[in-house]
Amino acid sequence: MLLKKGRRLPIWTGVLGGREPYARAMADLLRKEHGDSHRAIKQLMHQTDASERSVKHWLSAQHGPDTVYFLRLVVSSPIIRAFVLGLIESPAAHPPSDPVDRFSLATARKAYVAGEAAGRKPLAIAQKDDPERVPKRVPINVPDQIELSERQRWFLARLAEGGRCGAKEIVAEWEVCLKTARRDIGALQKAQLLEYVGSRRKGRYRHKQTAS
């Protein structure tokens, strides 16, 4: 039995309640800032370096911007930045234990500088600078890391949530040809991020990280 620590885990509601409310909130904010025209799509593409399809999905609330695209919007979009600041000041945010002072701000600046430096540094150099991260032996048969497309990340997320998903679902969601969808899945299998379990007719794909 776990000991009570006197601190409850937050119950996420509203925009933080899940992917769908987050996607709706982002779509509403981006439409308020840019409108819903073709020009708005081009502006967001230029602003975030995202594909036209991704931006259309954001504006239609099919899914919200993830990871790097969201951070780019925080930096470049006044309304998204205000939204994030509002979240920080909301009742759901855990209040800081100490007041923000010049030492806290200095720590934040150092963390930002370190993050920027790590982002610009190639992975091999970063590991060389940190001996603890370099394994003594190089593991055998470990797949090379690949840069996943947004379609592939979406596909893996669906599988991680327990959904049954295949090439036809990629075609329906992303409006690509069946050959492209199968190529996406094949690349994930080659990188050993994905496996097919069961018979050829009734089997299913499974994310290896969620396999038990």
Keywords:
two-stranded antiparallel sheet; mainly alpha; 212 residues; 4% strand; 54% helix; single chain
Word description of this protein:
This protein is mostly helical. Helix content is 54%, strand content 4%. It has ten helices and two strands. The chain has helices at residues 19-34, 38-48, 52-59, 67-76, 78-88, 102-120, 123-129, 150-160, 167-174, 178-190, and strands at residues 194-197, 204-207. A two-stranded antiparallel sheet has the order 1-2. A hairpin with a 6-residue loop joins strand 1 and strand 2. Helix 2 (38-48) crosses helix 3 (52-59), helix 4 (67-76) packs across helix 5 and helix 9 (167-174) packs across helix 10 (178-190). The chain is globular and about 55 Å long. The two termini are 24 Å apart.
Tally the helices: what do you get?
A: 10
Biggest sheet: strands, sense, closure? 2 strands, antiparallel
Element string (H = helix, E = strand) = HHHHHHHHHHEE
Spatial arrangement of strands, main beta sheet: 1-2
The chain-level structural class is mainly alpha
- Which parts are unreliable, with pLDDT below 50 for 5 consecutive residues or more? 134-144
Rounded to the nearest angstrom, the distance between the terminal CA atoms is 24 Å
Mean pLDDT equals 77
Shape: globular
Q: Give the tally of β-strands.
A: 2
Beta-strand percentage range: under 5%
The rounded Rg comes to 21 Å
Oligomer type: single chain
Helical fraction: 40-55%
